Amino acid sequence: QWGLKTEWLGRNIIHRATADSTQRIAHQAARNNAAHGTVIVADEQTAGKGRMGRQWNSAKHKGIWMSIILRPAITPAAAPQLTLLTATVLADVISEVTIAKPTIKWPNDLLINHKKTAGILTEMQAEQDRIQYIIVGIGMNVNHTADEFPVSVKNKATSVKSETANEQPIVPLIQQLLHDFEQAYDDFIEHGFSNIKNKWESYAYRIGDTIRIQTNHTEIEAVFTGVAEDGALLIHTDNGETQKVYSGEIEWFHG
Ligand code: BTN
Q1: Residue 36 CA, ligand 1 centroid: distance in Å
Q2: Which segments constitute the BPL/LPL catalytic domain (predicted)?
């Protein structure tokens, strides 16, 4: 059914026509000792979860709604690297399979023509300094037409089809995604973060541009130069310093 091109990723696929959230199912499976590389995929989700407690709209056959269970032998502090890795994989898949030119907006939104096409939700279960498991949730909008998005996200959200005028069958996209993810993951485990960092930066939205950052007490303008190993945004300030930014409101100036 899946025609996989992978060695270990997705060798166990749990498929649901309807799920509340593949993320929830993945947590449950992981607690019940599901193997590294187990994949949960749904045709639709009735309670898809986004970052920061938001909802994720997951209409039937309109996109990839998937969660991957990983058991990497890395420290919890290195876990953000997996999210950055996932973003580069999604950007690769979109560029390989479609004519769209994706960018990655820090920390991990996939954009096409400045609008969000895919998002990543990474959740980790760790005890002391050992990772029990990491669940990487991937939501990619593929076949929505513009009017199929809820009004609340209409100006910010898009799909591959809306931006390229081409419908994409979901299964080949999933095959490519799992293939590219496995390659990137194996490379990461073997060679570390530097290849991912370079690739992430090559896709980065507005890299080299001046951005405005609002943190707790201050507002700064600085040049966005890249991403750090711990997932922080790197900026270069006027007085010649490089700083890390972990969160805060960011204004992405128009070029
Ligand atoms: C974001 O807010 O940008 C992240 C969205 C992640 C959505 C995916 S869809 C598959 C998986 N299951 C969920 O409930 N959420 C993630």
Answers
A1: 19
A2: 1-189
